[in-house]
Specification:
The complex is a heterodimer of chains A (242) and B (257). Chain A contains nine helices and ten strands. Chain A is α/β, with parallel strands linked by helices and 242 residues long. Chain A is globular, with a radius of gyration of 18 Å. The model of chain A has no long low-confidence stretch (mean pLDDT 95). Chain B is mainly alpha-helical. Helices cover 76% and strands 0% of the residues of chain B. In chain B, helix 4 crosses helix 6. The chains are: A alpha/beta (242), B mainly alpha (257). At the A-B interface, helix 2, strand 6, helix 3 and helix 5 of A face helix 5 and helix 6 of B. Magnesium ion binds next to helix 1 of chain A. The site of adenosine-5'-diphosphate (ADP) has 11 residues of chain A, from strand 2 and helix 1.
């Protein structure tokens, strides 16, 4: 299978706190990987490193065989191909829904307003938010905001999508609507790395699960392996406390 | 000139209303233009001040950023650390000494502008710092450069949030313009002073002057409060700029507060 991301022996510290310790794994095209682990285990830091929002101290990250942690790589070019969805949505508060989707296309991909708008509307339709295209962001519910954030990322035609606890800030009934959208993306073979606490969702949607503990990959494998037959004592402890 | 207080006030108002009016107009023009100039320069200063060097910057860009930091910090320090009356004298006579020609009026606008810039720079800087860092991260994660994110996402929000504070600077300027009488700018205070010289009445004239300043500042605060309310208004939607979305979408919806 085509490898799209390869993480090689990366380490990352904040001051004296060693947050990621020698992490290696690779992601194939079309693969869905869920990253689970307790709070503070380094999940966010890991996917932020892949999007180059954090700089790593050691190791290398490859995106389609290009080493993106090299000094002279075009960071903005890489980022435009790796979509990121945040726990707190981070929609641009000075823009309405559709302009949130148009702005990055116009600024980064230099698409014309007309083309960008059509693409924006098509992805808003995909996430069920087309009718809210001209709403102000602050008038939306959390679930609606997150669906817009997903649409905004998709407008850039990313080859990989990263999700950092996309449903953790949502009320239970809104979690469903967002997970449904992510599930659809998985069905369309979008390559995704999803940090989540939704264990059932992770089980259903993922090809592989990475269990992080204390900044290390404690266990990695198929959902069946991890959830039904965990080998590591820490994994067992984590899963049974859930 | 009547000898009773209200008679004298009435006499002064009816006979010298034009001088008062010209003073008011001068004061308003200087305050308004000074605030606008202050905003433009202050925006630049605030950006110079918050621009930080990053590990992957080239040496030249690091040096330029450092120079920018030092320049804006010194600028702000100087203009906030000296009285505007002294700044006005220094700059007005300094420019004349260098062989320049300018009227007290244009000097006044210039001085108020560059003075206000120092205050507005700090206002905008704190406005930028108050923006959720997630806004910048989201913009960067989509591939926007730091500059693009600043220009299209951060600054519009920061400026909008500090508009009330900038309006407040305008009100401060209405009052502080009075110190420009030191370089003979014919503002409201200077003209009032001229009127006192005609009949040698002081209290009555400055009573009128105070009332006029009070009216201007009160009216300005009210206008500002209205603007503030409008900016904070919870519009559920913006006006569509095209016809692609039918009216029903604009009226409908189940937005949560
Ligand atoms: N910018 C930062 N500065 C300092 N410490 C940080 C920073 N970001 C994260 N950390 C620390 O790194 C550890 C891992 O954080 P994070 O990756 O957010 O964990 P998770 O997403 O699994 O909860 C935590 O102890 C957190 O406090
Ligand atoms: Mg996290």
């Amino acid at each position: 299978m085509d490898e799209i991301i390869r993480v090689e022996h990366i380490s990352k510290s904040f001051d004296n706190l060693n947050v990621l310790k020698d992490i290696s794994f690779s992601v194939s095209k079309g693969e869905v990987i869920s990253i689970i682990g307790s709070s503070g285990s380094g999940k966010s830091t890991l996917i932020r490193c892949i999007n180059l929002l954090e700089t790593i101290d050691q190791g290398k990250i490859y995106f389609k065989n290009e080493c993106i942690t090299d000094k002279n790589v075009n960071i903005n070019n890489v980022r435009s191909k790796i979509g990121m969805v945040f726990q707190n949505f981070n929609l641009f508060l000075n823009k309405n829904v559709i302009d949130n989707c148009i702005l990055p296309q116009a600024v980064v991909l230099k698409r014309s307003k007309q083309v960008a708008k059509e693409i924006a509307l098509s992805y808003l339709r995909k996430v069920g938010m087309e009718e809210f295209a001209y709403y102000q962001v602050r008038s939306l519910s959390g679930g609606q905001k997150q669906r817009v954030a997903i649409a905004r990322a998709l407008c850039m035609n990313p080859e990989v999508m990263l999700f950092d606890e996309p449903t953790s800030a949502l009320d239970p009934q809104m979690v469903k609507e967002v997970l449904k959208v992510i599930k659809e993306l998985a069905d369309e073979k979008m390559t995704m790395l999803i940090v989540t606490h939704e264990m059932n969702f992770a089980k259903n949607v993922s090809d592989r699960i990475i269990f992080l503990s204390g900044g290390q990959i404690a266990e990695m494998g198929t959902p069946t392996q991890i959830f039904n037959n965990p080998q590591n004592e820490i994994t067992k402890a984590f899963l049974f406390q859930e | 000139m009547p000898s009773d207080f209200f008679g004298a006030v009435w006499y002064l108002v009816t006979n010298y209303w034009q001088l008062f009016l010209y003073g008011v107009i001068t004061t308003l023009i200087i305050s308004l233009l000074g605030t606008l100039i202050g905003f433009v320069i202050g925006l630049g200063l605030s950006i110079l001040k918050i621009t930080k060097s990053r590990a992957n910057n080239t040496l030249t860009s690091k040096i330029f950023k450092k120079i920018g930091n030092i320049f804006s910090s010194s600028y702000i320090q100087f203009f906030r650390g000296t009285p505007m009356m002294v700044q006005a004298s220094l700059i007005y006579y300094g420019f004349l000494k260098l062989g320049g020609h300018w009227t007290a009026f244009s000097a006044g606008i210039f001085v108020v502008g560059i003075n206000t810039a120092a205050y507005i720079a700090e206002i905008i800087r704190s406005g930028i710092n108050a923006i959720d860092p997630g806004q910048m991260e989201a913009a960067r994660s989509l591939g926007m450069t730091h500059y693009q994110a600043m220009r299209k996402v951060i600054l519009p929000q920061a400026v909008k949030n500090v508009i009330p504070a900038i309006g407040n600077e305008f009100i401060v300027n209405v009052k502080d313009t009075s110190v420009l009488s030191v370089i003979a700018v014919t503002d409201l205070f200077y003209n009032s002073k001229s009127i006192t010289m005609i009949h040698y009445v002081y209290f009555e004239v400055y009573f009128i002057t105070s009332i006029i300043y009070l009216i201007i500042t009160l009216l300005s605060s009210r206008l500002l409060a209205l603007l503030d309310k409008k900016l904070a208004g919870k519009n559920r939607y913006s006006i569509p700029t095209s016809q692609t979305v039918p009216e029903v979408f604009i009226k409908g919806g189940n937005g949560h507060g």
